[in-house]
Amino acid sequence: MTARGSIAALMTCMAAAGAATPAVASTVPVDVPLGAARAALGVDTPRVATGVPVPVVGAPGTPTFHQGEMLPTPLLPVIPVGTELGDTGVASPLPNLLGGKETDGEGSVESPATTLLAKGPGAVLGLPLTMPNAANYGLPDVTDPKLGILTPELTGAPSALLGLR
Questions:
Q1: Which one of 53, 71, 151, 163 has the largest count of C-beta atoms within 10 Å of its C-beta?
Q2: What angle is formed at CA 50 by the lines to CA 48 and CA 52, rounded to 5 degrees?
Q3: How far apart are CA 84 and CA 52, in angstroms?
Q4: Which bin fits 68, alpha (ψ -120 to 50), beta or left (φ > 0)?
Q5: Over the stretch 11-45, which tens digit does the pLDDT of each residue have?
């Protein structure tokens, strides 16, 4: 093997590795294997397929300073977490639906993919002291301390479809 051939093989491998960069997936598809139960029990088993969500953490909210406050608001920032709920499908055979073999059917529940965004709780804290007061010889005044919790938030619009064939 020559030096030129080795370099060409190395460059080809590097190009293939660079082209095969992994894509960021928002859900991981999963098919639940129920074939073994079908063989063991001798009955038709449902088909179940879904997507496992992969949460993606966003940038925390930036604190803001207000006039006359010594600490930023919120002190503990809210952290958003977004994900996509994948397509989910469950289909099950329904034998003898109306009492006869000719009425065999299949029932299904399907849920299309939807985006879900969750924001964690945050905290607001105020010191029991104010900013230095010129009327009080440059000393801060005493005030009531503030403590608050920002509620978590969940935003999304999941839906489901029920079918009978």
A1: 53
A2: 140
A3: 9
A4: left
A5: 565 555 444 334 445 778 888 888 888 888 887 88
